[in-house]
Structure prediction request, 356 residues.
Amino acid sequence: MFKYVLPASLLLSVSAFAQTQVVTSVKPVSMIVSAIGGEHIEVQQLVSNQASPHDFAMRPSDLRKLDQADLVVWVGESLETFMEKPLANLSAKKDLEWMALNDAFLREFGDKEAHNHDEHHEDHDHDEHHEDHDHDEHHEDHDHDERHEDHDHDEHHEDHDHDEHHEDHDHDEHHEEHGHEGHDHSGTDPHVWLDPVNAKVLAKAVTERLISIDPEHKQDYQTNFQAFMSSVEHADHDVAERLAGVAEVPYFVFHEAYGYFENHYGLNNKGAIALSPERKPGAKTVAHIREEIEEHNVSCVFSEPQFSPAIVETLIDGTNVKTAVLDPLGTNVELGADSYAMFLTGLADQYISCLK
Prediction:
């Protein structure tokens, strides 16, 4: 009996076609999505690992990716302003916005109140942050118009940036009046991926959405979710123990991006160099920061791989202050089942390398 065997190339094509197409905005989102989806999804990330989401611009090829995707996962419009309009113009709603998830823990810029580590690590209970929101109520049908009434990101980031940040004298006046511990940012901090509590929240939402899109592989997604949760909890415990030894050491960061991580682990950030990552501080601000470095006995000033470290070198020149690189996007972390856990551990290593 004659049997027709499909060519290997066609089999590969069919297999690739069967994968769920997921577009992500930034690397931390890709880490979590890849861990849950595994071999059943293809991830296309919009912002390259070497770029910053703060100044990214969509290309026609990016718009095509959004149009062809089965699912789009992003952080929120206050981080990725470039996403809001293209998503609104899609014929079908297929996005998952991290900051819009009911159980996501959102902090305000300048809020330095740390979480209780013991409660976090022993119970892994989101109640302290989320006031008993129900995970299952919110994942399917977010409404773009309703979900941002409490924190209109566009207003306080675009207007604040243009009105108060552009000119050096505005930087200087603000620093002299308020210092660094208040920071010029206002509103909700979009760097939600730096708190492992939020990583678990997105992982659950992604799991539910992938099961909805691809129910055939439900068991695999659930297994991947459980493995992810275990991996993150283990890394969270380990990082908390290791960072406890440097928790009181004062330092400066390049820009105000690490509040979730710092609050979660109780670190001692004394200020940010740049009020916004796209703008360098003026001469008066530089002098003021150097005064604060001396006043607070700052031992380290951190830079970032996505931005020029030249201003950091200027600030510490002639002092005994050390410098190191903090990478809030996990640039060099390879995507895989344990990517996010590796990201947490790697970021802790970066802190410890300069604070010890």
In short: The chain has 14 helices and eight strands. The first strand starts at residue 20 and ends at 24. Residues 12-16, 114-184 have pLDDT under 50 and may be disordered. The beta strands are 20-24, 41-45, 71-74, 95-97, 250-255, 268-274, 300-303, 322-325.
